[in-house]
Structures
1.
Amino acid sequence: MKFSVEKTRLNDVAQECLILFAYGEEKKEKDKSVTKLQWEKSVAGLENILSDLEKKKLFSGKKEEIVFLRNHPFGKTAHLLFVGLGKKEDVTLEILRRGLGKAARRLRQEKVGNAAVFLPSLKRNSWSWGKGGQSVTEAFILSLYEFKQFKTKDEPSFEMDHISVVTEEKNLSTVKGGVARGEILAKAQCLARDLQNTPANELTPEKLAERAREVAKDAHLKVTILDETQIRKEKMGALIAVSQGSTRPPRFIVLEYVPAGKAKKTIALVGKGVTFDSGGISLKPSLQMEDMKYDMSGAAAVISAIKAIAELKLPLHVVAIAPATENVPSGTAILPSSVVTAMSGKTIEIDNTDAEGRLILADALHYAGQYQPDVIVDIATLTGACSVALGRACCAAIGTDEKLIAKFHQLGEEVGERVWPLPLYDEYSEDVKSHVADVCNAGKVRGGGASQGAAFLKHFVPEGVSSWVHLDIAGVAYYTSGDLSSYVPRGGTGFGVRLLAEFAASLV
Ligand code: BES
Ligand code: ZN
Ligand code: ZN
C-alpha cells in the first residue's frame, strides 16, 4: 500500500473513493437530545448529502461511526465515505485512528482499491497537521494487518494499493513528514505483531535472534547475539536457570543504534523474550497455555521500536536488549527452592519457576548498566496480576521516576497505547525478601503481584540509573477474543512499539 500527499481541490480528487470527516454533537432540542452534524467547511454539494444522511438517520457524526455511499459520485470520485469524529472540541488522534481503521476495513471489504482522505483541520485541538497525517497512515496500515504466514491455501484477500492524503498547500510538507513517520511506526508495529503471532515451535530463541539480526541488517544497527556458552561466560545465572529445562538454547539479543551526529541521550530498552512460558516445573494449567507464545511480546516491542527509532534517525544512542528463552519443565529444569546467582552477583531464591520473566530481566537490566543509560525502560508480559488489575485498557507503569511515568501516561493517551501508574512502595520490596538468598522471585504474600514484580526488578536496576520504568504489558500484549479495536486485530497487538519510539522522539 502506497501513500501520497496532495493539495488537490476536493472536486479534482481522482481516487475511487473520497473519505471525509464530520462532527456530531449532542444538542438539546425540545427536551430531547439529538445529534447535530457539523461540517467544518462548506463545500457545495456536500452539505446536502450530509443533511440528507442525517434526516434519514443514516449518519450522525458520532465518533467511530462511518457510512459508505457506493456509487455516489462527487467530483471525479465514484464513492463517498464519511467518518464521524464526535464533538469537535473532544477529538483526539485516537478517535481519528479508530474511525479511519473502520473506514479502511470497510473499503477492503467493498473491494475499493484506492481512496483519498481529506485531512480535517481540527483547529481547536492542539495537535499539528503532521500528527494528523501520521494517524492516517497508522490507521490504514495497522487496521489492515493480517497474519497469514501459515495458511497453505492462499486465500487471496483484496488489498488496497493507494491512499492519498489531501490537504492545503501550506500544510503539504508537514503532512508529508507525518505520513512518512506514520508509515515507519506502523510497519514496525506490524513487525512486532508478526513476531508475536509466530507460533512457539517456529519462533524459538534462536529464531528470534535470527529475526533480530535481519532487523539489524535492514536498519543498519549494531548487533550482538550471545549464545549459551557466552551467556554462561557473562555469568547470567538467572537467564541460564530459566533456560536449562529446554533443549532449545537461549539467546541474549542486543541491538544498538548509534546516530550519525552527536547523541543527546542514551536510552536502554529491555524486553522480556520468553518464546514459550509453560511455567516450568511450576507448570501452568493447560487452559489458554497456548497464549504463552506471546510471552516474548516485550522483546518484539523493543526490537521493533529500535528499528523505528533508527529509521526516524533520532539523535539518540539507543540499546535494545532482549533475553530470549523458553520456560519448560524437564529433568534438567530448575527446581522450586533453587538459589542462583544473577550476573550482578546477587543471589535469587526461585520459589516459583513460573515467575521467570523477572529472572531473565534481572540479568538484562544489569547488562544494560555498561551503556550508562540516562533512562532504562523495560517492557514485559510479567504478571497475570497486572492484567487482573487493569484488563486490556492499559498497561502498568511502575518505576523510580515519577516524571518519567507521567510522561509515559501522557504519551500513551496520544498514541492509543495507554499507560497507568502502579505503586512501588517499600512494602512490595519486603514481600520479595528471601530467608536464604538476597531476594526471592515470588511474593511471600498474596496481592499486589504487579508491584511485587517491579520491586524484584528494582534490585537489578544498575546503580547510577535513577530513571527507570517497568511497563507490565500482560493485559495488552495480545487479545484473542476478537479484535481489540478497529485497528488492533485479534492476536499480538504490537503494543509498546509506537509508545517506545514516541518516547524516544520526545527526548530530542
Ligand atoms: N508470563 C506470565 C505472566 C502472564 C500471565 C502474562 C497471563 C500474560 C498473561 C508470567 O511469567 C507469570 O507466569 N507470572 C506469574 C508470577 C507469579 C508466579 C509470581 C503470575 O503472574 O502468576
Ligand atoms: Zn511465567
Ligand atoms: Zn512469563
2.
Amino acid sequence: MLVNTPPMGWNTWNTFGNDISDALVRESADAFIDLGLKDAGYQYVVIDDCWSLKTRDKATGRIVPDPEKFPHGMKALADYVHSKGLKFGMYSCAGQRTCADYPASFDHEYLDAKTFAEWGVDFLKYDFCFCPRGFKGELLYRRMGMALRASGRDILFSACNWGVDDVWSWIRSTGAHMFRSTGDIFDTPESFRKIAISQMNRLNAHGAQCFNDMDMLTVGMYGKGNVGAAGCTAADYRSEFALWCMCGVPLMLGCDIRTIDREMLELVTNHGLIAIDQDPECRQPYFMHDPEREKKLVVFRHLDGGKYAVGFFNFDDKERDMTFTFSDAGLTAASGLGFRFTPVLGPLEGEYGE
Ligand code: GLA
C-alpha cells in the first residue's frame, strides 16, 4: 500500500476517550462533508480505544464491538463512512490489553487483522501498552505489519509506540505507514511546543510511506474533553497547526468537529498550510539554531517545484524579534539570489496589543 503524503483525518480519543458511539462517528463523518473537511483533504474517520467489550468472544476468539456503543456493528458503520467517500479507521494494541484495558491483539494478530479487513477497516492505529515481557516492540509491530498485509485488504498501519526503543531506527522495516514519535499530547501550549521541539532530532526516519506522527491535534478543543487540560488560545492553535504542517506530519484532528467554530475551521482548512504539509517531496524541515528555542523557533523546509517554507513561531507572551538569515538557509551572498515571500498565515490581528 502506497502512502505518498501524510494521512489526514479525525480521531475520537482527544475529545471523547471512552465516550464514543455509532452516532458520534456518523455525525462526525457527516461533518467532514458539510464543513468542507473532505474537500480540504481530510479522509480518515478513526475510532480509538474503548470500542469493544472487555472480553473476546469465547467461541470465535474475536474482539466484539460493544453493542451499546455500536449497536449496528462495525461493518455497517464502515459502510456508512465509505458511503460518504471517506475511509474508516480503528484501534488495537500490540500488548495483551489496550491502554484503557480492553482486549488487544497480542497473539491474535492474524485473526484481528482478518476481522478488521472483513469489517472494511482502512486504517489501524496500533498502540503499545501491556506487552508481555521478552517481546520487543520491533517484533510485535512486524507481526501486525505482516498480518495486515496478509489480511486481503489495504489497511494503513499507524504504529503508536510513543517514540520509545529507538523506534525511528526500525519502524520503516515493519511495514508501518506512520509512527508516533512522541508521548501523548494534552491541550496546553506547553504540550504541543514540547512535542515540536522533541522532533528536531527525530525526523530522520520521516518520509513518504512512513511518517513521523506528532499525535492528534488539539486545535479547537479549548480545554474540552478527554485530554482537555487547561486548553489553548486561538493564537496557540495557529502555532500548533502551522508547526505540524511545517513538519509535514499526519494531520489528525482531535476536537469535536461537529461543533468546531469558524475560526478554527478556517485554520484547519488553510490551503497554504495544507499544501506545505502535503508537499510531494515529503522532506523534513530543519530548525534554525536558537539558544532561546523554548521561546522562539524558526523552521525552514524545502518544498517541491523550487519553493521553500519558513515558519516563525513565537512561544513567548510578548513580541519577539525573529532572525532568518539567507545564509543560514544556504543562500550565500555570492549567489546574488534571494527569496520572494508569500504569506500563508500571519499572527492574529492585535495579538501583541496593536
Ligand atoms: C495511548 C495512546 C493514545 C490513545 C490511548 C488510548 O495513550 O498514546 O493516543 O490511543 O492510548 O487508550
3.
Amino acid sequence: MKNYNIAVIGGDGTGPEVVREAIKVLDVAAKKFDLKLNYTDYDFGGERYLRTKEVLPDSAATELRKFPAILLGAIGHPDVKPGILEKGILLRLRFEMEQYINLRPVKLYDERFCPLKDKKPEHIDFVVVRENNEGLYTGSGGFVFKGTPNEVAVQESINTRRGVERCLRYAFDYTRRRHKENKLTLCGKTNVLTYAFDLWERTFHEVGAKDYPDITRDYAHVDATTMWFVKNPEWFDVIVTDNMFGDIITDLGAMIQGGMGIAAGGNINPQGTSMFEPIGGSAPKYTGKNVINPLAAICAGQMLLDFLGETEAAKAIEDAVISTVRNHLKSLAAGKMGYGTKEVGDLVAQTLADAKTVPAKAPAKKKK
Ligand code: IPM
Ligand code: MN
C-alpha cells in the first residue's frame, strides 16, 4: 500500500469547509485504490495572524517541505488589510518552496454552465501554465518621494533566463505528456514589453526548436488571448505565460469553464513540494453557511493525486465530479447548486465509491 503524507492548510473563510469535502473524496479514492493518506493540519491564515500577529512562522516552508504535497483552502480575511496574508502566506510559500509553475486546467464539464453561446465541452479543454515565481510578483521596486506631489512608484517585472527557461521546459514537457494537439501557445506582449517578452520569445523558440521539435509553437498577445478565450477557446491546447498575465487570463478561464466553483490549480515544484488549491478565494460572506461549491477543492485534490503519480485515482475523482455536475447540479454557483456544500461532497464521494474501476492493465508481454 502506498503511503503519502499530505499537509492541509484550510486557511480562511470557506477554505476549511471546502477542504473538508476534498478530504472526504480523497479518502474514498484512497480506499478504492489502496492508498494511505496521512493528513497534518496547519492553521496558517487570517485568524492565526489576528491572534498572534505572526503572518507565517519562519519555519513554515522548512516544515512543509517534508511533505510531497499540500492541500490549501483559501487565504484572505476581511479584517486584515489586503496584501498582508496574500503576500505573507500564499506568495511566500510559492516562492520559498520554489513552486515555479502554476498549473491551471480550463475544462468545461457541462455546457449548461458555460456563459459562452454554443460552446460545448469539446470546445473548452486547455491548460494554462503560469510562471509562478517571477514577473511582477517578486516585490521588486519601490517608492521615491512617497506621499509628496512628486511621488514615484516603480514595480518591476523580473524575468530571468533560468526562471523563464524552466517554466517553458515544463510547459513543453506537459504539452507532450498531454498529447492532445501537441501545440504550445506563448501568451505575451512582445509588441510593448520588448525586454521581458523578448527573452520569453527567444527562449521559447530556442528551447522548442532544439528539444521539442514535435511540439507546434504558437504565439498570441495577451489581449488577443482574452478575446480568443471568448471567441474561439477551442484553438488552445496548452498556453504558457508569465505570472501576471497568467493570473488575469486564468480568472477568465475559470469563468468559461463554469466559474470559480469548479476552477482548481496547482502550485508546482516538479522536484519538490507542490500545493494545490481552489483558485476562487476565501469568499468570507459564505463562510459556515454550507452554500459554497466544494468542487474546485475536490478538483484540487484530484490534481494532487495526479501529481503524486496516482493517475488512476485522480481520473476516477474527475469522472465522479463530471458525473455529479452533469447528473445532479442545477448550477455551479454558491447557494444555487440545488445542494449544500456537504451534500455536493457526499454526491461526489458516493459516485466515486459506486464507480466500477477498471484494474490497471498489466503491461502487454512481448511475443517472441
Ligand atoms: C491567484 C490569486 C493570487 C495571485 C493572489 C491572492 C495573491 O489571485 O492565486 O490567482 O495573484 O496569484
Ligand atoms: Mn488570481
4.
Amino acid sequence: MDAREPTRPDDLPATPFHVAIIMDGNGRWAKERGQIRTIGHKAGVDALKRTITAAVDLGVTHMTVFAFSTENWRRPEAEVSDLMGLLRAFIKADLARLRREGVCVRIIGQEDGLPRDIVGMVADAHEQTKHNSRFFLQVALNYGAQADIVEAARRLAQSARDGAITPESITADIFANSLSTHGLPPLDLLIRTSGEHRLSNFLLWEAAYAEFVFQDILWPDYGHDALKQALDIFARRNRRFGAVDPGHAAQPA
Ligand code: IPE
Ligand code: IPE
Ligand code: MG
C-alpha cells in the first residue's frame, strides 16, 4: 500500500482542519457489558461511521484514525482475526456509500503481515475514491510511527546513495513528504478516547504542533456530541507555534 502517489484533493475548503483519533476502549466497553472484546470492536466500527458523519457536519476536512497498530499483533490470534474480519466487512458494506458521499479513503501502514485479500481491498478502496475531495479519511492499519519514520529515512538514504539528492538538501518538508502521511495538511487536533494519556506510536512526527485532547469516553460510545466537545476544547486553546501570544507581543519587558 504505497501511499506516496499524489492523493491530495484539490478543491478542499481553504482552511483544512485535520483531526486524528486514537480510537481506544473497545475492550473495556465490552467487558462492562459482560461481552467478549470482539463485540466492543463491532460497536467501535459503528462509532467510526457515526464519527465520520459528524466530522463532515462539524467542518473537519481530514481525519486520520488509528485502526490497528504494529504492536496489536501481540493480541490473541482470535481477536486479531476478528479485527481483520470487521475491516473486511466495513470495506464491503461501506465503501460504495463513502464513495457516493465524496469521501477519499487512504490506508497507511505496512503491507507486510496483513492478509493478502486485505492488501487488495485497501488498494481498491483508495483507487475507487481517490478523486473524491469532500472529506479525506486516512486509516492507519498495521501502522507504527517509528517504522514509518525509519522507512522515510531509508528512502532518503537510498536517494542520497543513488546521487539523486544530497544529504544537505534534506529538509523537514522533504522528510515529511517521505512519510506515509505525505500530502495531508498539518495535524491540528489529536484525540484519544478511554482516558489513556499516551501516543502508542501514532503520528509521532505529525503531532509536532497538534493540540491533544484526551476524553474519558470509551470509543464505542463516541459520536457527534463527543467530537463536538473535543472541537470546543480545541477552539479554546491558544496555539502559539513557538511564538508569543499576540496579546502580549507588544508589552515592554
Ligand atoms: C481499541 O480498543 C481498538 C484497537 C486497539 C484495535 P482496545 O481493544 O484497545 O480496547 P481496550 O483498550 O482494551 O479497552
Ligand atoms: C492504540 O491502542 C492502537 C489503536 C487504537 C489501534 P492500544 O490499546 O493498542 O494502545 P496501548 O496498548 O494501550 O498503548
Ligand atoms: Mg486499548
